[in-house]
Amino acid sequence: MSLLVAASLLLRVLAIPLLGRIAWTDFTTQKIANRDVLLLICLGLGSLQLVSVQAGSWWDMGLSAIGCILLFVALFPFWALRKLGAGDVKLMAAMPLLIGGNGLLVFTIFLLVFALATAALVKNPFLLPAGAFRLYVQHMDRKGVVPFGVPIAAAAVCAILFQIYVGVMVASSSGILQQLG
Q: Which helix (H) or strand (E) holds 117?
């Protein structure tokens, strides 16, 4: 694993606590701050730039930018119809920049799993442990809406962890780690 790829993965690792904060804030207050989304975009662009320099091609960065624009345009009507919050739309649109074009399929699969789990918990909250059930019921009584930032952030964290796992496996199978040790 080259130094640029390692630095790229480090920038994505720095996004994990921020994604946790976004998920918690969205669950408790139904708000996703613009500064958090902008910070995710900056971390993602920095990571993509390092990968592009390493690869010698800007294809992944271009694909991610196109994905960002397409997601924003596709989800904007749902915000206009009050089906999604503006923070959810912005967070979802920022994901291709954070994950990268090569990780979007993995992110989509994780997002589908977490969205289905969220839908199952909304329909049947008795599946939760007692403490979490109490917190969920109090939250739903106050807000009455589902925080979509939570499954988006969880899917992004899982996709980043998967990318790190693949990066370490490739580095260890190619013998680079033995040469460094």
A: helix 104-123
